Amino acid sequence: MTFDGFSVEDWGALVTVITVLAGGILMMFRYIVLKPLDDAIKDLGLKIASLGEQARRDAHENAQEINGLGARVTDQDKRLTTLEVWKETTEKYAKNI
What are the tens digits of pLDDT across the range 20-42? Predict the structure, then answer.
């Protein structure tokens, strides 16, 4: 029995050769393209996680600096209020003399 001049055994061999070649090409694609791409994605994920952790640490440090600056501003405000009261007191005293 033949089809287009090839016997059943010839067609079976041809299908087997095509299947083996396709499997080899897919395997090479997987190891040449997909594996490095997968590794690159994993590395990128680790870098993003590292940057996120660094950003959290930086945010915490910035919050501490902001709180420290707020305390300094409050302290300066108290000093300014004290100086204003002292100035008013000395002006009243100077007027009374």
Answer: 999 999 999 999 989 999 999 99
DSSP reduced 3-state for 6: strand
Q: In whole angstroms, what is the distance from residue 38 CA to residue 45 CA?
A: 11
**Other beta carbons less than 10 A from residue 11's beta carbon:** 13
pTM for the full predicted model: 0.50
The helix or strand, by DSSP H or E, that contains position 3, with its residue range, turns out to be strand 2-3
Q: Mention every residue, 6+ apart, whose C-beta is less than 8 A from residue 3.
A: 11
**Residue 25 identity:** I
Question: Which tokens hold the place of 73?
Answer: 């501003």
Beta-carbon contacts of 90 under 8 Å, excluding residues fewer than 6 positions away, are none
